[in-house]
């Protein structure tokens, strides 16, 4: 356990009674806290047309959080490449890397991170873009790697920038892409657990070494809520369950305070659906988490864990990260 690196994902979720400013401030607090704990990285994710998520301008957020921290690697989990011209991403992340050398990372996703109408608003010709994922990655890499001064289109800043690229996935499709490009692979098992084991197997079986990476590197993202007791951790986790319930019922709200029981908030069908979506949600005390996460690591042979911790109370959220860090010390 002590050899596993820990990182965090943060969507800058708006809490009940809060606003976008407080959500962004909470993200900064989390980043500063996990930096002190020795976490490797914090990633922000691109979502659009979602009222209670404040990280839609992901590159802007990355720059803000990087400016409020000192050594923590800050990146995207991810930038949804179909929404953007590769040149624009190369320029944005080349600029970030110029401002914060050796601290910026670029995780790429193949989905729009939104609904079809918003996807069309972002890029009018979106229809075929998810299927251009691999060519767009090649184009993006070419801007970072270009050494030919006669190239007609170049990224400034961007050329020669040290921006590690990761491939993100929530299905098996991205596993083939990550393997073919020889890039590290992050899987969104915190909300899409079904294909995790199959995707990892595909990635490792088909991996081809690259200049960036010689051996497969897998980082699953999971939900973890730690507290002093199992009872308190399970209570805090009800905020996540309410969030997923809102997703499946299309009744999305800001992150809600925890409740003593979910009884009366969901029916059996909704409970089963949320349970499936949150399969890789680990709530408990230090001892409980040590046992459950050890088994998860045994099953996945993960190289690193990315932790998503949607806890309503900020102090309880920071305490959760502290307890988790003790689990892996």
Automatic annotation (TrEMBL):
Residues in Luciferase-like domain copies: 10-299
Gene3D superfamilies registered for this protein in UniProt: Luciferase-like domain
One Pfam family recorded for the sequence: Bac_luciferase
UniProt xrefs under SUPFAM superfamilies: Bacterial luciferase-like
GO molecular function annotations of the record: oxidoreductase activity, acting on paired donors, with incorporation or reduction of molecular oxygen
GO cellular component, one term: cytosol
Assigned protein family: To bacterial alkanal monooxygenase alpha and beta chains.
PANTHER family: LUCIFERASE-LIKE MONOOXYGENASE
The name this protein goes by in its record: Luciferase-like monooxygenase
Organism in which the protein naturally occurs: Taibaiella lutea
């Amino acid at each position: 356990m002590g050899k596993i690196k820990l990182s965090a994902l943060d969507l800058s979720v708006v809490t009940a009674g809060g606003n976008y400013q407080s959500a962004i401030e909470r993200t900064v607090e989390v980043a500063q806290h996990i930096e002190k704990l020795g976490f490797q990285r914090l990633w922000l994710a691109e979502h659009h047309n979602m009222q209670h998520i404040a990280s839609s301008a992901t590159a802007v957020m990355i720059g803000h959080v990087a400016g409020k921290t000192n050594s923590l690697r800050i990146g995207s989990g991810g930038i949804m490449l179909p929404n953007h011209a590769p040149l624009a991403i190369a320029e944005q992340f080349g600029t970030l890397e110029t401002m914060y050398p050796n601290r910026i990372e670029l995780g790429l996703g193949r989905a729009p991170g939104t609904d079809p109408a918003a996807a069309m608003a972002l890029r009018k010709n979106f229809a075929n873009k998810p299927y251009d994922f691999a060519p767009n990655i090649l184009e993006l890499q070419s801007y970072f790697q270009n050494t030919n001064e006669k190239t007609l289109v170049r990224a400034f800043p961007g050329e020669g920038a040290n921006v590690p690229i990761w491939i993100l996935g929530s299905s098996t499709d991205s596993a083939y892409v990550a393997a073919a490009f020889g890039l590290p692979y992050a899987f969104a098992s915190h909300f899409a657990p079904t294909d995790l084991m199959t995707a990892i197997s595909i990635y490792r079986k088909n991996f081809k070494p690259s200049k960036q990476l010689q051996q497969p590197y897998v980082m699953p993202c999971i939900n973890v809520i730690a507290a002093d007791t199992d009872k308190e951790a399970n209570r805090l986790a009800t905020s996540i369950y309410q969030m997923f319930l809102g997703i499946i019922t299309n009744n999305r709200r800001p992150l809600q305070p925890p409740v003593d029981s979910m009884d009366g908030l969901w029916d059996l069908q909704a409970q089963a659906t949320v349970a499936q979506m949150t399969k890789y949600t680990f709530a408990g005390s230090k001892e409980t988490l040590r046992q459950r996460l050890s088994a998860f690591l045994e099953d996945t042979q993960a190289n690193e864990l990315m932790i998503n911790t949607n806890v309503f109370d900020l102090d309880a959220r920071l305490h959760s990260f502290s307890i988790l860090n003790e689990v892996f010390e």
